[in-house]
Specification:
This protein is α+β, with helices and mostly antiparallel strands. It has 36 helices and 27 strands. The radius of gyration is 43 Å and the shape is extended. 26% of the residues are buried.
Length: 957
Amino acid sequence: MFKEVIDEGKVFEASKMFSNELSHVEKFYYLMFKSAIKLNLFEMAYRYIQKRMEALPVSKKYLGTFDLIEFKKSTNQSYIQDIEVLIKDVIPQELRLELVKEQLNIYIKEKQYDKVLEVIPQVKKIDITHSYIPFYMEALFGLNQFDELKNLANQYKDHPTYKFIASLYLLKLYIKDNDAHRIAILDADFGSQIDNESPEFQKEVYELFRTFYQSIKNRLMHESYSKKLKAILKEEKKTKNKEPEIVLTNEKISQLPNESQSVFVKSNKQTLNKSLPTLIDLFAYAHQISDTRNIREYLRLFLIKAEEYFKFKDIVIFSIKDEMLYHYKKERLYDKQLDKSSYFNTLIYEVSQKGVEFFGQPSELEKNINILTQKPYEEDIKYIYAFPLFDMGVLMIHVDHDVLDPGTYFDYINGLSTIIYSILRDEEKNTKLKQETHFWQRIFDAKIFDMRIMDPYYSTYNVSSQALLNMESHATLDMFIRNIAIHEVKNYQMKIQKLFQKSGQSDEIVYMYQDKQIREKLVSIENKKEIHIISIFEDLTEYYEEKSRLMMEATVDFETSLKNLNALNKEMTEYVKDKGSFMLITFNDAILPIYGYDVTLKFFKEFGQRTQKFFNDGDVYRFSTYQLFVYIPQNDIRSVTKIIKDYIKYLDQNQSVVIHYEKFLPKISIIRYPVVTEEKLPANLYRYLEVSLDYLKRQLNDESYIFFEYQIYENEVFEQQVINYLNQAMDQNQLSLMFHQIIDIKRQIVWQYESSIALENLNIDSKYLLSIAKKRNRLFELEKYHIQMVFQFLSILEKETERLIKITIPVSKETFLDVNFNPFVFGLAQKFMIPFEFIRFKVKGENLKGNQHINQINELIQAGIGLDTTNVDMALSYPFHALHLDMKPSDSKWNAYLKMLKTVLDENNMALIIRDIDDNEQKDMVESLGIQYIEGNLFKRMHADKLFMKIKGSIQS
């Protein structure tokens, strides 16, 4: 019907009845404009837009601008400026909102994300439906503002309209952070709910999930999403095959009348449509060539590809900046340095100076000189195209056949010149970057500094630091830390973690590395939104060796003016020849983290001086940083005890001058020599005192002194041997995994298995083993090893039997609350592919204080991990799943308490497990109270191998 509207409209417009004064003439022009657009009569459409604008009242002039925008859309012209002007005009709010959304859409397509963020505050005021949210999220993602994007997406993840787009960007962020745990949660909540979304949206989501699961080698999920993606693509292909073919009219588009500039493209539309796919292909290919190739090889490979689409005799590329000429012919590229005289009388000079393209026969040239031969063009060259490469140079193509229509290749070669310009411009930028990089690399490689550059995943050592530290150029941080003295590792790791948290920080640390004393100066710098730590190493070994030699020869401690350890070692040979007592004294060193090193040192100095004043009949030495050694010439138990008590009273009654409100609170270990030992080696005597003092500090009572007994030393030696054996067993995988059965007496089945570890070659109870590990600061490592053994057992069980069992793993409160506990558990679950619902943790220890750990507990529970506890307060205060209590001798009060407690736990869906059930009488008593779950020696403990064979046998039978 559009053609009929045009025909009838022309007749009406030419009639005497038509007048611009008619009340609805602008509607007539609008109908004519719309019909002309539908028939691709663009000149006519533009004419009626102008007429309608003249007819519209001032208050509705904006309608004409809307028509102009529609016209420019139809003719593939830019209309963003029209939108920007129209938004500022007085128009209805609903129209302004539609324009703003169109504006945002254009900015997104052109990747002008910063402009999107400029518009968002304005659109928020008029968009009550929040339809700007997808544009906002896309812009934040494009600008790498990930933290702000994560906050925004979390706000809208439950929104009825935008929950899916929010979940999509959360998925992208979690994939960027490699957060497998959150991706798994998102998959469960989001992956199966998008069937009603658009195919494009489904494709993007499925592809993200598919690629992620492929990267972590989760074959099941990868195949699942691959099938979904194939189904979408297959459906799209069917739909595409059914779409009707669109045929466009071939109306010539020319410049509009009454306009100072053209609103149409200059080139022929048919040739542009043919050339565009080729140019897109060439543009993509140009960016697939490796940046490591030099410009000559880069151009050669590109022109080989270009020759596949258009056959020519040869191509000439001239670079103005370095006056370099590149000549391509039959897959070969020649380069030649020119001077101005060699191209002054050629077409290249003319095009580069005027900046205007040339296409025609050689005979049309004013300067008919072939730059390749420096002679007039011969008959073998029929046609020439030459295009300026903006300010970079000239592209010239020689054609050896007749060209009847210059427009046939015009768009192709014009586009080719743009791509070559981008290649030359990229090369110029890359050259500058390479020069800067090379400059800094030469500084890094120079032997001025021993330097390392480190990011969270990668380290690079320069040549001189490799020699100093005996490291390879890209050795990991873990390999470096292995060479640091064990007592200095934790401090070093803390400093590194602190520097990685924020850029612009600096620090300095001195430590023992292998047999060298190293000072390291560190600074954190941000590069590409990632923190790097730059370290300068300095070898202080000679300085420290000289300092140590002088200190060894000195006999007076320069900080306290007391005699030092060197003086003590010299005097010990005389002390052991006579009767006396040796004392090792420490003071209230808990003040160190409160007052700092300087104040604590002054406090200790005052402590030493007062001790020396009291023991005027003995000798006082500074034994270590905050320890004193005292020798007195008495060894009678009553005399020594009296002296010690008087000394403690003396310190307690005299107020400190340095810190008035702090007490010295000494702890003292004493050897009455030679009453309790006849050992003559000073090192052994020191060891006895240190062991006794350490034992005293661990006691729960408030005793201030202890007399050495040899049994204390023997127990310490035994525990140290156990720890050594335990460390060896962990390194060599010699620990055994045992399982206790938790029985459901109501159903007469095994409800859970609780794991424990054992040293098979040592007859040591697992509880005693854990207490030793805790005393020796090895509990966290031991319990981590225990957890890993359970995951390994479940992994092997699943592979061999295709079955899994639920296992409860006991852990201490200290291990459970460690900041690295949750990441460690999630990492094991991902590594061994064990579902969380088969893992439970029984947290041992007293109640947690405050609510600062609730997020950590919730994170485990939300993942599907079960949590039990042995503490009633903890069970009632936090969302645990079960409470474990030890069996006690039966009495009415205890039984009534258990019955009441079970009722409370049942109401909160929590289980009650009674442990240490050793006989049927205890079992019957517990069962009479309605308690369902028990554990103890009544049920046989099983080795992991035996349990494995039992499960495997039950399946086979």
